[in-house]
Give the backbone structure.
Amino acid sequence: MVTDRAVVDLEGLPAAGVLDFVEAQHVARLEAERAILRAAYQWAVLHHPDRLPVSDRRGRERARRAGGSGTPLVTEHAAAVFGARVQTSPYGARRLIADAVDLQLRLPKLWAGVEAGTVRVSHARHVADATRELSEAEAAWVDGEVVEVADGRLAWARFEAVVEGKVAAAAPELAKAREEAAAKERCARMSRVNKHGMATLVIRADAVTVAGMDAAITAVADRLTETMPESMPESMPDALVNDRRVAAAAVLLNPAAHPDLSVGPVKVRAKAYLHLHAESPVARVEGHGPVTIGRVVQMLGAAGARVQVTPVVDLPGMVPVDAYEIPARLREAVHLVHGGDVFPFAANTGRRVDLDHAQPYSEGGETSIENLGPLTRTHHRIKTHAGWTARHPFPGIVVWRDPYGAHFLVDATGTRRITGGSAGEGAGVRVDVMGRVELAWAG
């Protein structure tokens, strides 16, 4: 067994030293993941059935393809001993080996990035798994489309959404087949997991139908405000909202189980945002992911939905607002520019977020696309109270500085750590025509 452990006296390190240490350990962990992936591929090479002695029949008859189409066979039980050494099951080891083989033989751009240290192993493996049912040509197309954002700059949920969309675009017929299979999984049932006298009701249907249910529950919950007055501590506002929503669901689903039947039927409007491109066979339902155009037509037709076509918003022509409050048209424009929370490595892509003035309004910051960024309430509080600062050199680009002087650039492709010299007080953040950031920070 090879061991090389260095003990570091963390207790004697200042805060900046602890950050340097953990960053170095993170780099070492990523290199270890790359090394294990290389070893998994070599293990597959060593256990091709043709490499066994003629007299050795172990696993030869039931050898299985290591990964997707175009990958070689591996003897049946090869994964078991490899998995034991990395403390995982034979199943987990088979998946590791399959990912390694697919990356080397079907996803060469991602594998080159793994070898160079510019692609995360976790991200590369996710793409390998997601493209396993694709042809070699389809997988190669996805490879080229996602390699740039597989370096960890995107939060995991956002990266999954990108990969899901590219896989659907590469193989629309496969995406259609998967959608048809998923459409048959509609259900409304009690969960089997019940604890402490609580149970869960699971309703599974298409996104438009569920959006209508959610809107109905919200509408009834709003009407229950008078019959369910404030009874929760001020520190638990969400608990009260949830109580009202549960009561609203009871009224809609089983009125006899609720004492207040005065709410009556409600008319609701549920809004689903659908993003389309003329040249793509795949659309994206905001908050739900990619679906084929045919599936969109089915969902909207079944729901009797009314479709409003909105042209691309004229973002350059959006003038600032001479007020702190943010009108709906400007809020929509900011969402379209950023697509979600702009805090480093944030995952939230919803619309129920705060819009933060990067330069405070009280200090002369405009209420404009150039100065507004979506943040969840938690990230907004971090920026306000924990020493983080942000600047928007261009719409869609946000440069952050943490309390210890590290800088991060956030744009539509995710988050990247900006390396370079320390940035003291200065005139601001400047970005040249090539998109390179010059770190001269303005308080």
